[in-house]
Amino acid sequence: MNLTIAEEIRNTYRDLRIGVVVASDIKNRAIDSELEEFKRKTEISIREKFTSDTLVNHPFIWAWRETYRSFGVKPKKYNPTCEALIRRILDGEKIPSINVAVDSYLLAEAEFMLPCGGYDLDRVSGDISLRFSKGLEKFYPLGSHEVEETNSGEVVYADRLRILTRKWNFRDCDFTKITTKSANIGLFIEAAKKEIPTEALERFTGRLKDLLRRFCEGNVHSFLVGVQEKLEWIIV
After folding, report:
1. How far apart are CA 236 and CA 233, in angstroms?
2. Domain of residue 79, CATH code
3. Which of 34, 72, 86, 205 has the fewest CB atoms within 10 Å, i.e. is most exposed?
4. What is the pLDDT of residues 199-230, one digit of tens each?
5. Which residue spans within 11-147 are E strands per DSSP?
């Protein structure tokens, strides 16, 4: 399986880098008490460092807000995924408990303040591409029975049959969601602007690898690719 970045994306986002973490033969479970403890500590740390007003001053939050604006999305209406998660924590909510694999990337997302999403690779059809939508493409959002349609020029992940994620990393589709039955998963962490250093992606992927190995076992590998240096790579 390949991840392909469309030429239009490469030309528009010349500073784009994507961290990819692929885990195979994992043993995913609903919950782990040690992981839950890590989540509670991270929530406390976030509430000590930020308020709802000061959060937008963080350079990573600012960078993703600017990235959303660049393809016509208002970040106040549609918070980038990492910002949405942290705002829920600041409002007193907990990092959600979905399953150990998903909880691991949500924890890393909160720790490093970068967006992350992923798929059950056994439910992906063909290669994954990052591209602009031509508009009016059907999308079946996670946790909803309503059908949405993409906007023209919206950045999406897609496979051969469907849109996998809308608004770059705002919402994943329901069909390829990671569940306790998922054995092979792919996770994607992005930085589209130079204000997010490559080192931050490296630390995120390293942390996520450690969490998945610790709580899901299996084989875990990571890739870090600059969009101008390499445009396609094998992930499974």
Report:
1. 9
2. 3.50.40.10
3. 34
4. 999 999 999 999 999 999 999 999 888 766 54
5. 17-24, 116-120, 128-132, 138-139
* Domain total of the chain: 1
Task: Report the alpha-carbon distance of residue 62 to residue 59 in Å, rounded.
Answer: 5
| Domain that includes residue 86, residue range | 2-227
Dihedral angle sign, alpha carbons of residues 224, 157, 153, 115: negative
75 within some domain? yes
User: In this structure, which long-range contacts are made by residues 57-64, counting pairs with CB atoms below 8 Å and at least 24 apart in sequence?
Assistant: 58/113, 59/195, 59/196, 60/112, 60/113, 60/114, 60/195, 60/196, 60/200, 61/86, 61/113, 62/195, 63/191, 63/192, 63/193, 63/195, 63/196, 64/115, 64/192
What is the pTM (predicted TM-score) of this model?
0.93
In DSSP terms, 18 is beta-bridged to 190, 225
- Does 235 score more than 90 pLDDT? no
Instruction: Say which residues have a Cβ less than 8 Å from residue 143's Cβ, sequence separation at least 6.
Output: 174
Query: CA–CA distance from 80 to each of 64, 114, 128, 184 (Å)?
Result: 6, 9, 21, 26
